[in-house]
Amino acid sequence: MPRTSEPGRTVGSRLLELLFAFTPDAPVLSLAELSRRTGLPHPTARRLVLELVSTGALDRRPDGRFVVGLRLWQLGTLAPLTESLRTMARPFMEDLYTALNQHVQLAIVEGREAVILERMSAPQAVGLVSQVGGRLPLHCSGVGQVLLSHASGSLFDEVLEGPLPKHTTRTVTDPRSLRRALAACRKSGYAIVRGELTDDADSVATRVMDKEGRVVAALSVVFRAGSARPSVVLPSVITSGLGLSRRLGWRPGVPIRTS
Amino acid sequence: MPRTSEPGRTVGSRLLELLFAFTPDAPVLSLAELSRRTGLPHPTARRLVLELVSTGALDRRPDGRFVVGLRLWQLGTLAPLTESLRTMARPFMEDLYTALNQHVQLAIVEGREAVILERMSAPQAVGLVSQVGGRLPLHCSGVGQVLLSHASGSLFDEVLEGPLPKHTTRTVTDPRSLRRALAACRKSGYAIVRGELTDDADSVATRVMDKEGRVVAALSVVFRAGSARPSVVLPSVITSGLGLSRRLGWRPGVPIRTS
């Protein structure tokens, strides 16, 4: 296998490290920043970045810095359950947004985190850090708890046995308490999470099933603590989640499975 | 530069070829298909594909075939002018769709083609092949002509001097006629394209400007030939395009530039 001077890192892995150096917090990077973030020597980083630019995976801006290229965005649209699920979810999310006038989010599992697939909120809305493509922890966000409670046994154990970072004073980090909350969520199909991710935000989330009853996504409403009562928000979130599940082919009576 | 046995193809370029082998027509590929599409020997393809799977760039399905991974979708959302433009365009596109009840598309230039960034249409609508992330030719689609007429001189010449494939009997493939049409579009800001891409579809498209007056996108309505009159559709398309341009910071009086 062609390797570079540093053992264990193939040219391929270096190329991917350069790509994945771009994050929502750092969508524009200079060559120096890319070199620092990947630990690659400047000349190596330069050569590989130019290769990425030549295929359109990255774009070079007029100021010389780099951004993710449109070709990569196009490629990303081919990932299953992204564009199709967004398209199907959007009407349900819009209606929920119209009914409640609160942030609405749709998320799926990626690795050990939840990834926001779609969101809706008033342009002037504040207090929500999420964006499409952004990540949320599984253990202390509404969508995260719904996804985690229906996750495969191995992911479930991995998260519960791993570190459970405390984001606020209210984040549940005791594995036994969390297991109880997740068991309840698995039974009810929804999660109410208050101030566990950020102090001033509450979330009401529910599961979304496909035609085989697999929980493929979670739908949530997020609102400033005190601006709504979860018990008032909950029925509309549940009906929207069931509506989207029906759109995906699920029918009442189809047993709900962990993925 | 580390090269494989075949001259001219670096490991990096092979890796990217494997990624870009996935297309809207072929979003699920087996190892054999990946090997064939890239011309890579089976063992090489296998090794690189597994490397792509280990980073989450590709996912392996239960049937053993491969798809684009969610991590790549996430990375793609970082490309400039994708998620942000989609989010800003959506209300304008929805209103246009509500007013006309016809397909609505938003596209930008990528390489020598237009790429569909967002679209809206009734789920039961037929006759439109486009999808988000899909491509349209610049010379004979509505959005394409708007984008091409405002493109940089080099792209403009490259397209006009290159092959101009004939998609229907009505596709304009004479460079002089096309230049005249594009000059008119550059002046008016809109294009009416009838049956040039598919026999039974007409399109009315207009430009979208950013605050510096650069034409960053094109907005169009596409309808079955004969189901609407372009002159009736045009004013609403233009007002929506101007509305979106204002949302991007453009103001009347800011000169319109080619990109």
From TrEMBL, chains A, B:
Domain of life assignment: Bacteria
The HTH iclR-type domain, residue ranges: 9-70
Keywords of this entry: DNA-binding, Transcription, Transcription regulation
Positions of the IclR-ED domain: 71-250
Pfam family, one: IclR_C
PANTHER family, per database record: HELIX-TURN-HELIX TRANSCRIPTIONAL REGULATOR, ICLR FAMILY, HTH-TYPE TRANSCRIPTIONAL REPRESSOR ALLR
Official protein name in the record: IclR family transcriptional regulator
Lineage of origin: Bacteria, Bacillati, Actinomycetota, Actinomycetes, Pseudonocardiales
